[in-house]
Amino acid sequence: MSVDVLTRVSQEAIKPKIGSRVLNTKEELLSGAIGKELRALLEERGVLVFPEIKFTDEEQIAFTKTLGTFAPEHRGGEEITKITLDAKENPAAAEYLKGSLYWHIDGTMNDVPILASLLSCRVPATWGGNTGFCNTYAAYEALSAEQKAEYETLRVAHSVWASVFYYEPEPSLAKLKGMQAIGENELPLVWKHASGRKSLVLGCTAHRVVNVDAAWSAEILVGLREWATQEEFSYSHEWKVGDLVIWDNTGTMHRAEAYDPKCNRMMHRTKLQGEEPFE
Fold this sequence. Notes:
28% of the residues lie in helices and 25% in strands. By secondary structure, it is α+β, with helices and mostly antiparallel strands.
């Protein structure tokens, strides 16, 4: 029989409200036969871990395309992106990756954010270097009815410049103006998805609840970040060489956890093109 007839997703839950470990073989994954099932599982669980699957770059790109439309990060087309602090491999990394240490959703400056990221480990950190995830679907669903009613009416201003203050509390005016030139984007605090589910839109780019007193705005954003990232809704992945992890960028937040900046940690990333606007 053909692979597509025999293949089903083999998986086990990592935690009750976030994460599944996928145990299918490389051949089964690359066949594309379980692409739709994996997409459904990703939306349900937020994070999928493929332990030590050891995809080559070409295989990672091919696997990405079984799940949706490949989202190029470079003008060159379908390539992996190297995530590293090594300036020889990624000259812009030192500044760009500073913000990745704080909870965020990719693409809050866009109307349609990417659907998902796929990250594989080539060189783990000598210490630290986990990637943390939290399920913003589950976090929303666990709110009280009163909280849901309040938050669903709110909108939040997002900007790249807001994230600078997380890692550089006193930036120069020139740097601040340069980041502010990127602009702002106003998004709903609660994302009403086409599926009918709802998730929270938070992270280090969120800096102001629109038409709300500054102190109360800060309490809302900090309180919800604290709520969404608590142990019940979060998972920290400890990387091994060859691991691949996919996370649903529309229903999770993520962050890199601290590690030795001189250890040459190397991750390879691909992305899936967004399919749904924030509104």
